[in-house]
Specification:
It is globular and about 55 Å long. The strands form three sheets. A six-stranded parallel beta sheet has the order 1-11-8-7-5-6. A three-stranded parallel beta sheet has the order 3-2-4, with helices on both faces. Strands 9-10 form a two-stranded antiparallel ribbon. It is about 40% helix and about 20% strand. Helix 2 crosses helix 9. It is built from nine helices and eleven strands. The protein has two domains: about 80 residues, 3-Layer(aba) Sandwich (Rossmann fold); about 130 residues, Rossmann fold (3-Layer(aba) Sandwich). By secondary structure, it is an alpha/beta fold. Strand 2, helix 2 and strand 3 form a beta-alpha-beta unit. The structure holds guanine (GUN). The site of guanine (GUN) has 9 residues, from strand 4.
């Protein structure tokens, strides 16, 4: 079984991105800028945001993190975003999700200028993306497509199953795979017989959000398995990261699969860096 090494692909892409950012910055006299807004102190979000910040610095993107208190009100959050909309040094604004439950996520996202939305989460960017004309593509699904491209996995005419229908992963993944000429089935928590679908698939993208949910018996022999899940698990008193798929079972069965960690995870941030740079170039 071929291990689809997302960390390696990610490192290669970041290297070339870093060179391109350097050249662009020399020519334009400024660096691309990303500002992340983190409301509250969800520990997982704090870790993600810190990874994003460090990754930006490594490739030459100016990065700022604005931390707002858990009890921040909508008006203050919107004002913070509006100030960034007007700041010429800021090319990308990312509101880390989930927001505390008293805040309206859609209203916050719609305050972001769509030309500064590297997550492709504003309604305008979702519309453009689904029409195939997006200025940027959703980060995690685009990261999956880059892994498939790097390993020359054939897509045209193949049967793909996506498990999960979130706005951040499942739905945009469906879109990119159909644009790549796959025949795509979108499954979710209410799918009547999931296995009936996965057993038919040449490619399965699992974003179910359930630790070690699927294994060898759920897949056709020779299938390509992409695992978007990431969960913490205690094994012998130690913290271990696991995906939605029992990776160890796939050896000798799947033709290729992404591990967890070091599979899809690093690609999400790489695509965020790429999108921020693309938006900076568009703004000049
Ligand atoms: N929270 C978890 N993943 C993401 C992401 O890709 N973007 C944003 N804005 N929040 C997230």
């Amino acid at each position: 079984m071929l291990k689809l090494d997302g960390l390696m692909v990610s490192n290669k892409l970041r290297e070339s991105l870093s060179e391109n950012i350097e050249k662009w910055s020399q020519a334009s006299g400024r660096r691309p800028g990303l500002t992340v807004i983190l409301v509250g102190n969800d520990p997982a979000s704090e870790v993600y945001v810190s990874h994003k910040h460090k990754a930006c610095q490594k490739v030459g993107i100016q990065s700022e993190v604005i931390k707002l208190a858990h009890d921040t009100q909508m008006e203050q959050l919107k004002q913070t975003i509006e100030t960034l909309n007007l700041d010429k040094q800021v090319d990308g604004i990312l509101v880390q999700l989930p927001l505390p439950s008293h805040l309206n996520e859609r209203e916050a996202l719609e305050t972001i200028n769509p030309k500064k939305d590297p997550d492709a989460l504003t309604i305008e960017n979702i519309g453009l993306f689904f029409g195939g004309e997006g200025r940027v593509k959703s980060c995690t699904p685009n990261g999956v497509m880059e892994i498939l491209k790097y390993y020359d996995i054939p897509l045209s005419g193949k049967k793909a199953v996506v498990i999960g229908r979130s706005k951040i992963v499942g739905l945009p993944m469906f879109n990119l795979l159909q644009q790549a000429n796959c025949t795509v089935t979108l499954c979710h928590s209410r799918t009547a017989d999931l296995k009936e679908h996965t057993l038919e698939a040449d490619i399965v993208v699992v974003a179910a959000g359930k630790p070690e949910f699927l294994g060898k018996d759920d897949f056709k022999k020779g299938a390509v398995i992409i695992d978007v899940g990431i969960h913490r698990k205690q094994v012998d008193g130690k913290n271990k990261l696991v995906g939605d798929v029992r990776y160890d079972e796939l050896e000798g069965w799947a033709s290729a699969a992404t591990p967890v960690p070091k599979g899809v995870g690093p690609m999400t941030i790489t695509m965020l860096l790429k999108n921020t740079f693309d938006l900076a170039r568009d703004q000049g």
